[in-house]
Amino acid sequence: MLTRFLLAVVLLGISPCWAQAPEGPYLPALMKQEPAYLAAWKSMVKGEKLSAWVNTFTKTQGAVATPVKKIPVAGQSYTLGWICEPHNCGGNEVYVLFTPDAGQAWGLLIDDGKRRWLGKPDAAVQAAILSGVQ
């Protein structure tokens, strides 16, 4: 009887953690764990005129973020991430989509509510990014 009770306690204590597991790592953590993502990001923003908070993110990977998601594009699994300006998320965001090998990235910059594409995404990539815009 004690064994069943302990088993129930263990299972009940663990199951909420499983239910709340994120879809993937947060974008800043992913960039630190797998440098190819950071390299693709830097290539995407190179030569772009960006807000100070985006430039700071490029250097430090410090921003508000959610877990990355896998998005299907042309039959392959791409990685979609999101960040926003700390303490000023509303209308100050970047959605970024990475190829499966993290060799390339495209983004949608929302700066003071105005939208601008980064990395010259084609229509399929734009649609995939927009599918994640909340």
Secondary-structure arrangement, i.e. CATH architecture: 3-Layer(aba) Sandwich
**CATH topology description:** Inhibitor of vertebrate lysozyme, Ivy
Order of helices and strands: HHHHEEEEEEH
How many helices in DSSP terms? 5
Q: Please indicate the count of domains.
A: 1
CATH class: Alpha Beta
What would you report as the Rg, rounded to the nearest angstrom? 18 Å
Class by SSE composition: alpha+beta
Q: Which term fits the overall shape?
A: globular
Mean pLDDT: 86
Low-confidence stretches: 1-22
Query: DSSP strand (E) fraction?
Result: 25-35%
Span between termini: 49 Å
Helix coverage percent of residues? 40-55%
- Assembly category: single chain
Number of strands: 6
Q: What kind of sheet is the major sheet?
A: 6 strands, antiparallel
Structural topology:
Layout: H1 2-19, H2 27-33, H3 35-45, H4 52-60, E1 64-65, E2 69-73, E3 76-84, E4 92-98, E5 105-111, E6 114-118, H5 123-132
Antiparallel strand pairs: 1-3, 2-3, 3-4, 4-5, 5-6
